[in-house]
Each structure stands twice: as structure tokens, then as C-alpha cells.
Hints:
Blueprint: E1 9-14, E2 17-22, H1 33-48, E3 54-58, E4 63-65, H2 76-81, H3 94-107, E5 112-116, E6 119-121, H4 123-130, E7 133-137, E8 141-143, H5 157-165, H6 167-176, E9 180-181, H7 182-187, E10 193-195, H8 200-209, H9 216-230, H10 234-249, H11 252-263
Parallel strand pairs: 2-3, 3-5, 4-6, 5-7, 6-8, 7-10
Antiparallel strand pairs: 1-2, 8-9
Helix pairs in contact: 1-3, 3-4, 3-10, 5-6
Amino acid sequence: MPGHPIPTLEVTIDDRVATLRLANPQKRNAIDILTAYAIGDAVTEAAQNPEVRAIIITGDAKAFSAGADLAFEITDDILDSVAHHDPDPDVYPMMPAVEHMILSVVRAEVPVIAAVEGAAAGIGASLAFASDLIIASESAFFLLPFGRIGLIPDGGAINTLAAALGRQATMALALCQDRLPAARAAEVGLVAELAPAGEAYEEAQQVAAGFRSSPRGALAATKAAVNRATLVGLEDALAQEATMQTELLATPEHAEGVRAFTEKRAPNFD
């Protein structure tokens, strides 16, 4: 993206496994519009590589991703740099980037594994939920704090959570906005495997290694079959989220929520 910093995403391919590592520790791997598009592009490119059998998305020891970068300014130059993605002009610019990222993960014709250490919050949690397998360390946790800034969970989180947890557990996580520790997430079926603290990526590599002996066609067909059975309506949900989130982003409640977050205080919602 000419004229702009390279998004904080490191991509490597080794022994048939592609690793996408969020690398913005100063902001706990927060995701901005450039990074969201970059993740989607990198997943798509890796999945189209005939040598790749699996993709791992990870962060660092402190955070998978703390969510969206609320301080990132989306300028006209930024919009020009992502115009080739043909975003919907009627919704907030971050929303098409989120949709691109999530659908790239879901549509990838190889398994996508989220290796989670520390916080997976907001859109970071949504990215993990969209993955085919979550390997979380004992120190990891999931959080959907959208309501605290006057928004709804996005990134298809409601759809993917409902598929994994059911209605009541999804309501609790989305409405109560409490932390879900990885151990509890594993108990209820949201996490595929629980790893010792600091070892989520290593465990994800071992899982990915098991796919090297499977043909890509079988992996793609199996993943597609599971998604057809469990993620009905995901694309429609993402489109509806984009419209609703665009409206909520213009409300005084959202402005107060962001101010409170920035000032590290409780929001004052009348």
C-alpha cells in the first residue's frame, strides 16, 4: 500500500504451514483497517498456494489481539490505498475490511488455526472465532466488550459463537461482556485444544503438521461441509452488521464510550 506503513503483520511459510503473526505489541496487536485487509489478503494468498496445508494466525505472549485500533485515523489517503478492494461506500470503511478478513478465513480451502495467548478481544476475538480451530493457552481469554463503546459485536461473532455455543451462552458472552477464560472456553466447546501457557503456537504447529498427510481437496471439502452445516447466513449477518454498526458509530453513546475508554474511566450512558 504505497505511501503508508506496512501493516503490522508478519507472514511466513515453512514446511507447508503458513503463519500470520500480528506484530503490533505497543497496541496489543490491535487491528486497523490496513491490517484487516492485509490479513484477508494474506489468508487468501496462502490458501491458494498449492504447497500450503494449513494456516496459523497468532499474536504474541501477551495478546492475540486486543481488538480494533480505536485511535487509528482513516484518512482519504488510506481509503485510496484500499480502493482496489471495492468497499461499500454506504458503510463505515472498517466494516468491509472486517468482512474481507472474516470471509477470507472461512472460505480458505485449508484449515485456519488461531493460536491464542493472552487477550482475544473485540474484533480479535471475532477473528479467532471465525477460524476453524482455536488452540488457546491456559492464560488466554476471550472478551466481546463492544457494548462498552456503544456498538454490537461484529466480525460475524454472533454467528460463529452461536454455532459453537448455542443461544444462551452466546447471549451471555455478548450482553454481559465478561471475560471467558480459555479453560472454560474449552469446556464448552469453543476451544479445540488447551495448551500450557506460552505454548499455544507450538501446539498449533503440531496440529497443523497433521494436515500435511491429507490432500488439499479432502481438507477443503470437509471444511466446507462443516461450514455449510454450522455457519448458515454468515454473509448476510456480516452485511447486516455493517449497516447497524455504521449507524451506531454515529451515536453520542459511541462517542462517550470511546472517550471513556481513552480516559480510562467508566462510560456515562444516560
